[in-house]
Amino acid sequence: MVEINLWSGLRRFANDQTVISVNGYTVREILDALVKAHPALLPIIKSGVSVSVNGQIVTNMFAAIDASDEVYVIQRIKGG
Question: Are 2 and 24 within 8 A, CB to CB?
Fold first, then answer.
């Protein structure tokens, strides 16, 4: 299981949970599992989120994730 830490703006879409445990071995798999567990997150994730793994933003959806990794999902800030 991978623990995903939700940034504050995303928590309201996940029943105010701060940390959610999901199964998955890649960034894509954990995001898919997160949406499966909390469907209200789908539009947010589809519009774009940033994923931080061990303090580094990861853009490769096929990047491996280990259960010991520190994972944060952060809503992208829009505007100019």
Answer: yes
How far apart CA 12 and CA 20 sit, in angstroms, is 13
Instruction: Give the DSSP H/E element, type plus range, for residue 32.
Output: helix 27-37
> What's the predicted TM-score (pTM) here?
0.91
The dihedral sign for the CA sequence 45, 32, 66, 1? positive
Query: Strand, coil or helix: what is 59?
Result: coil
- pLDDT per residue over 4-54, tens digit each? 999 999 999 999 999 999 999 999 999 999 999 999 999 999 999 999 999
Question: Could you tell me if 60 and 30 are in contact, meaning their C-beta atoms sit under 8 angstroms apart?
Answer: no
Residue 5 backbone phi and psi in degrees, to 5:
-90, 125
